[in-house]
Amino acid sequence: MRVTISQVEADGKIILQESAGLAIVTIQRPRLKNAITSGMWRELAEIGRLIPENPKTRVVILRGSKDQFCSGSDLKEFNQMSINEAHEAFHLMEQAISTFEKLPLPTIAAINGPALGAGFVLSLACDLRVGTSKAKMGIPVGRLGITLNQMFVKRIADLIGGSRTMDLVYTGRLLDASECCQLGLVNYMVPDDEDVDHFTLRLAKKVMEQSPASLLAVKRSVAYNKPALSFPWDTGTASSIDANDFPEGVRSFVEKRKPNFKGRG
């Protein structure tokens, strides 16, 4: 078994374990609900590029440590960034998510807790999602002055439609496990008396019994039949930051108060 640990923060790691045809990627920063820093996004993208180089790998599992999946990007880190640095951080985020989205292998997200913001979108980059009763999903970017670019919006709208996507952003509400299942955001709901990792491993083994050629063909066909997912990164038209509202949104989050937004969109 090959284990790769990319430690980019004192308490944050991206771990890759490869064994018996499986590549298991773990986001490990439980103290901060597996919030991902810019350095961790960079390492996640690098691990995503590394996985296909192992010819023995058949299935990829993406999971979070403890009872979390990923609470999104580290907002306290954003509070220390300039606008240009924040733009670059969002670019790194998109690179990591798109790398997993384009993997030429079946990918499964094991969601045993909140998948929020960029963590929510990261889970949608996987082909299948396994959830538990602890799963929560949402994209509460309106509280932060984040203006979702086309790539992020499309990934959500492709699964739940435009109106429901707008509802999530307009209200900032989080979907519970039952709603996630009803909307097709979760393919499998694990019973409370069963471990999500064990269930996901059994599912992965079932996938590994199928023809790799058949799996890749359907993955390519599904991608082909979607409108193009590739947009140029353009800070003028596809920015993820409102220059007025974003700094205030992040400050209010760190200071634990309601934001006072003044942007006009």
Q: Can you walk me through this structure?
A:
The strands form two sheets. The protein has a seven-stranded mixed β-sheet with strand order 1-2-3-4-5-7-9, sandwiched between helices. Strands 6-8 form a two-stranded parallel sheet. It has one domain: 2-enoyl-CoA Hydratase, Chain A, domain 1, CATH 3.90.226. It contains ten helices and nine strands. The termini are far apart. With 265 residues, it is α/β, with parallel strands linked by helices.
List the helices and strands and how they pair.
Layout (H helix, E strand, L loop, with lengths): L1 E8 L2 E8 L2 E7 L9 H13 L8 E6 L10 H4 L4 H19 L5 E5 L2 E3 L1 H7 L3 E4 L4 E3 L11 H11 L1 H10 L5 H6 L5 E2 L6 H13 L3 H13 L20 H11 L10
Parallel strand pairs: 3-4, 4-5, 5-7, 6-8, 7-9
Antiparallel strand pairs: 1-2, 2-3
Helix pairs in contact: 1-3, 3-4, 5-6
